[in-house]
Amino acid sequence: MFLVAGVLLVFGANRGGGPKTQQERIDLLTSNLACPTCSGESVFESRAVAAEAIRSEVARQVAAGLRTDDEIMGYIEQRFGGQVLLVPRADGLDALVWALPVAVAVFSLFVLFSAFAKWRGNRPPSPSNDDELIVARALDERES
Amino acid sequence: MKSKNLVKFVSAAVGVVVAMFFLVLLVAEPDNDTVARSPLLGQPAPAISSRTIDGESFVLERRKGSWVVLNFFNSTCVPCINEHPLLVDFAEAESSKPDGAELYTIINDDSSESIRDFFARNGGDWSKVTDDNGAIAVAFGVARVPETWIIDPNGVVRLRITGELTEGLLGRQVEMLREDFTS
Amino acid sequence: MLASTGVSGTLGRAFLLVGFIGAVFGAFAAFTGARRSDQQVIRLIPRFAVLIFAASVGAFATMEYAMITRDFSLAYVQKVGSWSTPALYNFAAVWSALEGSILMWVLVLAGYTLAVAYWVRKRMHDPIASWAMGVMFVVSAFFFLVSFFPANPFAAGAPGVLDGPGPNPLLQNHVLVMFHPPILYLGYVGVTVPFAFAIAALITGRVDEGWLVATRRWSLFAWGFLTFGIALGSWWSYEVLGWSGVWAWDPVENASLLPWITGTAYIHSVLVQERRGMLRVWNISLLVATFSLTILGTFLTRSGVLNSVHAFSESGIGSWFLAMFAVVLVVSIGLIGWRGDRLRSPGVIDSPLSREAAFLANNVLFAVFAFVVLLGTVFPLIVEALQNRQIAVGAPFFDRLSTPIGLALLTLMAIAPVLPWRKATTETLRDRLFWPAWCGLGALILSLVFGAYGLAPLLTFALGGVSAGAALRQVSLATRRQGWRGLVGRANGGMIVHLGVILIAVALGASNSFSKSQELSLVQDVEAQFAGHTFELRDVVEVRDDRSISVKALVLVDGRKIYAPAITKFTRIGMNVGTPSVRTSLTADVYLTLEPPVRQDANEARIKVFIKPMIVWLWIGTALMAVGTVLAVFPGRRRKPTEPTSAPVEVGRS
Predict the structure, then answer these.
(1) What is the pLDDT of residues A49-90, one digit of tens each?
(2) Strand pairing class (C588-595; C581-583)
(3) 3-state secondary structure at position C639
(4) Regarding beta strands C516-523 and B57-59, do their DSSP bridges make them parallel or antiparallel, or are they unpaired?
(5) CATH architecture for residues B49-181
(6) Which of B37, B108, B138 sits opposite A79 (nearest CB)?
(7) Where are the domains of chain B?
């Protein structure tokens, strides 16, 4: 059954939704840009004036078709500064925000595993072969 | 490590992390938006073209040769209303100078009618430029009004002032930049 | 000062002062009584609880009275009151800004203090009760003090003001403003109770299972309201804010989510403590963390260091909450370090394949999740402190990291309910997971048929199916054994809560991955099409009242009903608010917003259409969670300790 599920998953995972429409491209770009007057909200979500303006600009550039996604992001970043990017880059101090969760996850799993190992070590040991021999001999003696 | 002291050790470690976190929070300051940085300072101004509310065309590049002051404005924003008389004074002072700066209002999220009404009531006869879809605001990275930008005769962005202007500030800044420019 | 604030101001401040003094004396009585087991002093405790509750009710009622009568002598009424706000929103305006929301916190906290005092009235001789009451009094005293000084709602306003702007327009156009904040506070503030008992346990060095089981109900109660409050907030965001989403990872949203995460970890791991006597120190730490996170969250969102949709950013109050946060943590960590050893139990967990182990894994996952949310929320502050530059950490970060955690949790939800306590073999597991696995496969196939794609959504659907199967299996086994009582009690109620969570997870997976949107320029009476729906603009109308001008586009959707997305300008404040219009159905919502600029009597309008699959299942899932929580609070049939936990039990119907 796992095999069937696995095959279906692989099939479904690779079946894309088709090429991105322009609106999808705009939505994706604006989801990764921070609205400059309301830090935290993305340009996609915010109804603020500045966000509307940036949305229009992104829509204009996507419709013009001259720039790639990265270039459009770069255009906006050039005007508004680094804090307009919603997703921290993976270099310098900013990389910590990605690295630390992974480190914490690995660390806690390590703690969990060592706890389990310790607990298993605490269990009363199962009888060894010598012990079994002693018991068998004692039982024989009793019977005879 | 003895298990007896495990709790103490972990508590101490947690305590240290929390103390560092506390320091970060202590240093944090509420946002104040008087910092007027911009990646555009010292760069050529973005090429913008639009129309004034009287229908004439406005192309920033063609203003090269004079000092240009752009004021991003909205007639319902309180600091904009407050600083308006200072802009009127500034425009008057500059009009009497041979190389006087040209003042333009860039309309931010407002209708031409409201702008016309406001200026009719409060004075100010310089050109007011429409900004459909906020393209000019985005080009300059303007998110909040009021903002005032100073561009030199070579078309290079020299200064960005965010927030309400104070008495004489604009005039002084233009004067200082002028001296720098000619020297 | 008396003259300038009038009766309301003076009366309100008097109530707050009485409350503060009452809380201080109550704490004193509780701590002295606990230390010396002095019954006479202990008898005073309930009286002080009544006193502070009465004081808080008085203060809150005075504020409401001032708001209803539009008493503009108070600065707070000047800020959020207005003659043109309708009565309902005016009543809710009291908690629409900082000072009033702290006042509501005081009211809820005093209410909880009184409720706890009543609940322990027959056990006051036990020092744990007195210590816990003492902690409640101390926290109440803090909030009374905050309400008296930095967040004073009864401060005098500028003289001669006759009207005000009213509350933020976003808080004036949906009735949820009456429910979301109070319900959220019932949860948020309610975590103070288990925290108080945790501190009491640390101080006395005792963790009696009796007290633990008893406070578990308080924790569940607070957790339930917190869950419901968060869900209501998401619903509000969806219905009102117009960006078609339900969760933005906004700092204020995160502030409410963090205690929920640690709280959920707690209600699971406390079961391990009940059964095996283990994880006591960990559970106490979880309770400490949950409470501290509520204080930290209030600091982050009310101090102005992080901006957000909700922010009532004022400076001054920030330092109070930061100080309280420090005090809480220093005291708690100190107590844990000092006493924690005493509470540790020598128990072990026998096998990684057991329900205890599953709960441990659950806690690890929730701890990582809490860390991710906390890190993302405060990271901009860390970067600013270290490098003096501004960055933003937004939704894409949280989404990307919470997806694997969510999938891991779904996997756990699939396995844990069928795991017996202590130990299991893989055969047992395989047997019990037989039907759930088929459910999962069925869900996967169904979703593929409906056109789903992408690894994360498909995994969500498949694992959701398995988890639902596991939960339903438990519930059906229980009802087969015990009739209707099989639905009641924490294990079964918990399964129903799980079903709700699964629905929410599946709905989020579907709507996050498969939403579509498009901007359409509509011309009057000309039909446009998108995603299998037709849209026709019928008219653009304007509605005016004394506080707003609203431009609505009347759009006929699929030839059947008219929906009216609008843009409303609140004239007194100069703020524009977009109101979406939503057509809900079981499979997908059609969500319409009106895009500016639009003019009344124009024969065209630009709208944006969002197709959001399965959104309504979020609310159905929430309702299930609420039902399940209520069922879990009811006492179920207590299992006799001698009954085996793995084999089915034959019980005669009684």
Answers:
(1) 788 888 888 888 888 888 888 888 888 888 887 778 887 776
(2) antiparallel
(3) coil
(4) unpaired
(5) 3-Layer(aba) Sandwich (3.40)
(6) B138
(7) 1-30, 49-181
